[in-house]
Amino acid sequence: MKMNIFLCLLLITSGCTVFQPVETTLIQPKLLKQVELPPIRELIYNNYFEFYCEMLINANGDVERAKLLTGTDDEVWDSLAALSLLEWKYTPAIYDGHPIKLVIYRKIKVVFEDPKIYSLAEIQLQNYNQADSVYNALLDGIDFALLAHNCSISDSKILNGNLGNVNINHFSEDIRIALANLDEGEFTEPLVYGDHFVIYKRLSLNN
Q1: Are 7 and 86 members of one domain?
Q2: How far apart are CA 27 and CA 5, in angstroms?
Q3: Which of 76, 93, 111 is the last residue in one of the domains?
Q4: Mind listing the pLDDT tens digit for each residue in 58-104?
Q5: pLDDT-based confidence at 47, cuts 50/70/90?
């Protein structure tokens, strides 16, 4: 069941009464994949700049609402940046074992670096058993595109898993490291992607 969470702090003073807090577990959303922010004149900011933002992450890990709390004094860029944040992907927040909708506040550090472009295809699977089965099929020589078309739960299945040219610096660190080690034609082991699993293949770079 999807839940909304509202946290508040109540200060209660009493002579000798002891209140035992109810223990709960809140797991914060984790960034899985970014989308390119709009171009900016980086020379103004040397090698990087930072801004604060607010994002509403739903129970599927999608950004429903985003706004910049500190901007660049460029209203057009700030508006475009907020639109880009709507395309970012997170794991959902988990509260007492359930995915929930949660407002998060983040400091974003924008670093100016050369993109690392790979041409990628993916197969997203619902759970590890499915991912392991598909991975073993790939090791046995079954065509990646065929498995992507028949087994993937991603919308990219209609393109046989093809994602086109992708800047791998936009992925989370563990996925980025796995992708950086691929040669053309190689594929990863199943990687955790939120509550799903994904297998990536590096293709020949598209011009």
Answers
A1: yes
A2: 12
A3: 111
A4: 999 999 999 999 877 788 888 888 999 999 999 999 998 889 999 99
A5: low
Could you say which of 52, 77, 111 is where a domain stops? 111
The partner residues of 51 in beta bridges, in order of sequence, read 108
- Residue range 5-43, pLDDT digits in tens: 333 334 344 445 555 555 568 889 988 888 888 877 654
In the chain, the number of structural domains is: 2
pLDDT: which is higher, 111 or 14: 111
CA distance 82 to 96: 30
Q: How far is CA 110 from the centre of its chain?
A: 16
Do residues 63 and 54 lie in contact, with contact meaning Cβ atoms separated by under 8 Å?
Answer: no
Q: Please check whether residues 97 and 148 belong to one and the same domain.
A: no
What are the tokens at 35?
A: 């989308």
Burial class (CB in 10 A: 0-12, 13-18, 19+), 78: middle
DSSP category for residue 38:
P
Residue 90: give the domain boundaries: 3-111
pLDDT tier at 3 (50, 70, 90 boundaries)? Answer: very low
Residues 107 and 122 in one domain: no
List CB contacts of 107: < 8 A, sequence separation 6 or more.
50, 51, 52
Strand partners, 167: 117
For 69, half-sphere exposure in the C-beta direction (CA atoms, 13 angstrom radius) is 10
104 with 8, same domain?
yes
Q: Are residues 81 and 132 in the same domain?
A: no
